[in-house]
Amino acid sequence: MKKVLIDIYHLPQFNFFKNAILSFKPEEVEVFCVNRGKLFPVVQHELPGYRVTCLGDYKHNKGMWSMVFKIIIPRIYQLFRLVGRKQYKFILTAHYQANIIAWLKGIPNIAFNDDPRRFVWPVLKFSADEVYLPPFGPKYQGVKVFNALKEWAYLSPNYFRPNAEALKPYGLEPKKYIFIREVSTKTSNYLSQQEDIILSISRSFPEDWQVVLSLENKENAGKYPKGWLILEEPVADIHSLMYYSQIVISSGDSMAREGAMLGVPSVYAGNRDMPANRILMAKEMLLKLEPEEVAPTLKKIKAGGLAFKGQEEFRRQLFEEWDDVTTLILKKVEQSTNKA
């Protein structure tokens, strides 16, 4: 029996595809991923009974050259060896590597992207049968649009229900703490970004602020303020922890957008100029700040000096405006496999 192959390279990509994957029976779909951060153990934890194959290991990543020659190129070679028309009838990605193999082997494939970067974007457009982007301002020739951001595939009220019980193991109370995400800069997305942005400004946070920290690189855990609660992944319901926080701050763009889509005033402290971020900045639920601006702005938010829409009011607005992306994913798979 031919399967649908879904290739995942980053934890937000898994979250994006998760509801689509779970709509398939385990014998109908196969998931490939990479050992990057907590991605592999999280995927295994979230998909019991499904076959998950890990290709590539970011422990070899020491910079751009090692990433290209020790991870990316070997991974593409492994994909070429493992992926064939006899095994897979359709390939889905939010990246590019499996699309190259699908093009080479004549397997129908589509990609959902929200980061049309200079080097990857031409490869993706060339190799994928269809490429989907959110409704960014610039229009790209031959590219289709889905009316939402990728994170809405799992944060829409159709799929996400906040659970206050998720706070109890951590002794947290709703809206009494700040949720912070510190990403590793040892990936292609963040190579140009200052390392440890949150760490560099952590001493400017008052000691009486309760902080929950999602830390990608645990090697630095001992350097953060002792009063901060550092999460151990996988976290059973991280989006409920974010939903019930007072403010979300992230040095990575994905969690900054997630916070905003959960209706929580959110701050992106990284240096990337993301079209996806601009959509939420225009809706006035996401701020992009320089690191030194973060603590003073948080004080202003906590004091009521900056106004934001009500949490559920904002989420209802998104629900009325945006598409159900998971439904679109499943529709595209059905249309393509029916043609085959």
On the 0 to 100 scale, the average pLDDT is 91
Strand content: 15-25%
Sheet with the most strands? Answer: 7 strands, parallel
Oligomeric state: single chain
Give the N-terminus to C-terminus distance in angstroms: 14 Å
Number of E-state strands: 13
- Count of individual helical segments: 13
List SSEs in N-to-C order. Answer: EHEHEHEHEHEEHEHEEHEHEHEHHH
Order of strands across the biggest sheet? 3-2-1-4-5-6-7
Poorly predicted regions: none
Would you mind describing this structure in some detail?
- This protein has a seven-stranded parallel β-sheet, sandwiched between helices. It has a six-stranded parallel β-sheet with strand order 10-9-8-11-12-13, with helices on both faces.
- Helix content is 37%, strand content 16%.
- It is built from 13 helices and 13 strands.
- Helix 10 (275-282) links the parallel strand 12 (266-268) and strand 13 (286-288).
- The radius of gyration is 20 Å and the shape is globular.
- Helix 3 (64-82) runs parallel beside helix 4 (97-105).
- It has helices at residues 11-22, 39-46, 64-82, 97-105, 120-127, 152-155, 197-201, 238-243, 253-261, 275-282, 291-302, 311-321, 325-339; strands at 3-7, 29-35, 52-57, 88-93, 109-112, 130-133, 144-145, 178-182, 211-215, 229-230, 247-250, 266-268, 286-288.
- The mean pLDDT is 91.
- The protein has 340 residues and is α/β, with parallel strands linked by helices.
